Amino acid sequence: MSPVTAPAHLPPGLLSVHALPSDHHDGPWDHILVPPGTKERLLNQTLLRLRHGRALAHLPGLPHGLIVLAGPPGTGKTTLARGLAQAAARALAPVGATTYIEIDPHAFPSEMLGESQRNITRLMTDTLPEFAARRPHTVVLIDEVESFAVRRSTASFGSNPVDVHRATDAVLAGIDFLAESHPRIVFVATTNFPDAVDEAFLSRADLVLNLDLPDETTIAAILQRTLAELAGIWPGVRGLAADDALHRKLAGRCAGWDGRRLRKLVLTAMAQRREVALDPDLLEAGDLLAAADASD
Ligand SMILES: Nc1ncnc2c1ncn2[C@@H]1O[C@H](COP(=O)(O)OP(=O)(O)O)[C@@H](O)[C@H]1O
Ligand SMILES: [Mg+2]
Fold it and tell me: Is the minimum distance from the CB of 35 to ligand 1 under 6 angstroms?
């Protein structure tokens, strides 16, 4: 993703800022294969908040505009969050554009004494409201939030515990402030370690979606998709992309793999034999099966 603004020109704590919808942000949403209904739930929750946050804010049990994607590494959380911003922006385009912001959670190291707390507060109370004022809808990605909102009951890591408390408090106060004052912001937080994320942060989430390791059907679908993409470049691979029995057989051997590793399997298979590496049209089922067995 090429940011609209280079990080050097962005306020501290922001990785990138994008105006959506934008054609070159199509892709991530379709790229990630998840069980039926998952994307729909995610998108509907986001649209409800972005479209009707103002009205909902008057009800008791105020929505916080916070969605948490939890699951093991390599299950597509970051990619899906990026895709969600674009999918929501497309759906809302008739009523206005969307700003998509990625926060750099590593920009607030808790060792920095009171500094990280002040920076988080500035980000939440100044920077994000300024950006949110520019377009009707705003989606903010906090990737790997466990490094940002550390669970206070277990935080230690040699850092100053008082400061961890202060930084986490600043995040929570910021989310509470924005939930009320800026009902058209949605935060999407991802975490590989939900147990490390502060309970008070998780309890504010309107939706916590667990992205588990893919089941056998999804594994077969990911392999099929990866081969079909390859066949777009090397038509010799078309037969493998259409071979459902092969996908099922491979899925049986790849139980427990995450999506990232599954997509890499096809690359590994292409590198099994020199002639295939030089001419991927020559890829055979045997290369894929050998690659699956080799990376046990
Ligand atoms: N469910 C999935 N379907 C298809 N591809 C996937 C899936 N999960 C992961 N991948 C592949 O792995 C890559 C890395 O995923 P990423 O979004 O970084 O995962 P996470 O943030 O959960 O660690 C994706 O770009 C994609 O190529
Ligand atoms: Mg990630």
Answer: no
